[in-house]
Write a structure and sequence with these properties.
6-stranded parallel beta sheet; flavoprotein; about 190 residues; alpha/beta; two-stranded antiparallel ribbon; Rossmann fold
């Protein structure tokens, strides 16, 4: 199983801190999974100009290909101006419309306050739905107060991240079994 952790910002530390913990849990719980981190702060992305994703070069092509090859994507994003960061939106713009078909996508959000908790429902979920993702229904919303010295200090948040990872892997396995059963019906 191929899993991509997509840290969806090119500034700040909270999203990356949460992503590091999330992927640590995933690696410890599912050691056979091939888990890759893509931190948009560490790659040189160009803006989408309408080409097919495989026509790009460098980091832009690598990011698109890793996402297209993944069985699951764990997206971590901060809230900027009550929306997702432009660098994360650009990743979606690089991909074809059905890029997330048959992929399980789970999400956590870091935000300065609870006032932005609906951003995910109004900004990110419609994009994921449009791109045909199987979305893990429960996401994790992490506020500024949940961090201290670049660590998550709220035990409830840690528990919810653990559960998010578990739900992600369970959904990948469930959808794989459903597809296999459907293909077996054809009998050839």
């Amino acid at each position: 199983m191929k899993v991509v952790g997509l840290s969806g910002s090119n500034v700040g530390t909270k999203t990356r801190t949460a992503m590091d913990y999330t992927l640590q849990v995933a690696r410890e719980s599912y050691p056979d999974a091939e888990i890759t981190l893509i931190d948009l702060a560490e790659v040189e992305m160009i803006f989408s100009d309408g080409r097919n994703y495989f026509d790009y070069e460098g980091d832009t092509k690598m990011v698109a290909e890793k996402i297209m090859e993944a069985d699951a994507i764990i997206i971590g994003t901060p809230v900027f101006q009550a929306s997702i960061p432009a660098v994360l939106k650009n990743v979606f713009d690089l991909l074809p419309q059905n890029a997330l078909r048959d992929k399980v996508v789970s999400v956590f959000v870091t935000a300065g306050s609870s006032k932005h908790y609906l951003m995910i429902e109004h900004q990110l979920m419609p994009i994921l739905t449009y791109m045909k993702a199987h979305i893990v229904p429960t996401y994790v919303f992490i506020e500024e107060v949940d961090f201290y010295r670049k660590e998550i200090v709220n035990d409830d948040i840690l528990f919810r991240i653990d559960r998010l990872v578990e739900d992600t892997f369970i959904m990948v396995d469930a959808y794989r079994k459903i597809r296999e059963a459907k293909e077996a019906e054809y009998g050839f």
